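Bump. Still looking for Acetyl-CoA C-acetyltransferase structure tokens.
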Amino acid sequence: MAEAFIVGAVRTPVGTKKGALAGVHPADLGAHVLKELVQRTGVDPAAVEDVIMGCVSQVGPQALDLARTAWLSAGLPETVPGVTIDRQCGSSQQAIHFAAQGVLSGTQDLVVASGVENMGMVPMGANAKFAIDEGLPLFGDGWTERYGMQEISQFRGAQLMAEKWGYKREDLEKYALESHRRAGVALEEGRFDAEIAPIAGVERDEGVRPDTTLEKMAGLKPLRDGWALTAAVASQISVGAGAVLIASEAAVERHGLTPLARIVQLSVLGDDPVYMLTAPIPATRLALEKAGLGIDDIDVTEINEAFAPVPMSWAEELGADMAKVNPNGGAIALGHPLGATGAVLMTKLVHELKRSGGRYGLQTMCEGGGQANVTVIERV
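Sorry for the wait, here they are.
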């Protein structure tokens, strides 16, 4: 049976929306990690068969097939094509899936999976703004017949989850505080240093606030009156890029590459699009069943902290050990550059497995439309 290996994984620091990276063109952010990936792995870039890049707001500086423009902006061979994909927040995790599936199918040997999002330059929802400005509906008649005219948003979905699982504002804030604490420790101990390619003078993730307190969080206004959600328990609007190189066994031998992890399972599943953010729960169950593993077999989990109720409900339903979940903090502290986050989390996961000596890692995140990707890897 064919195998697919991760042989390189690198990311930029994750910047804030008004930080030093906000003025860097998305193609240059992508070019930076692509060039760094080639240099760190030592692979012949002409041997890469495709570049698959996740990006959510594909408009303005992020339009015109960002994967292709980023690769060319890096000065890499013109013979290598690129394609840009959108599975909402899971876009670059899906890029990893597509890259690995190309290798596992036997039709490709070397594929780059990557992701870029500059939310400081291209605001979230910019690609939907045209419809709003023109007075056009975002959803058609079929959707309206099925789900009515109710609000469909990640914010409402997160609040619905908090209500369903009985989480109070204080519960969410305690989770958020721990995310910042863990990220602060990781920064202090230099846990991210090996995975980060500094850019524009930025060497560390910009959003971490290890000095925040429950008292500070309590002073914030809720996103809406009566809600448990505040900005403190949501992922940060961010800027960043990440890139992962997937190789076949033959490519590993041919190019003298060093496997970091083996792809074990690739799953994607849909759930209620109104709740929107619950799909990681059934998707994880599906992936573990197909992999023949239990949640206790997983040594490190990276689950995107879009909002605190997402990882909290996931861990509660799966019975996961929270010490193994986002051990170095998550998006509440480190940020969530939408289309880049899948590649960023995989980079974190691969390096944390190496640092900790763990065997199995699992990555999942909630996505627009009520979807989730789950990737299981094994450290080599």
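Residues 4-125+237-255 form a domain with the Peroxisomal Thiolase; Chain A, domain 1 fold (CATH 3.40.47.10).

Edit: fixed formatting.
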